[in-house]
Amino acid sequence: MTGKIQLKNMAFYGYHGALAEENTLGQRFLVDLTLTLDIAEAARTDSLKNTVDYMQLYALCRKIVEQDRVKLIETLANDILDQVLATCPRVDEAAIVVRKPSVALGGPLDYVAIETSKKR
Question: What pLDDT, on the 0 to 100 scale, is given for residue 6?
Answer without folding.
Answer: 98
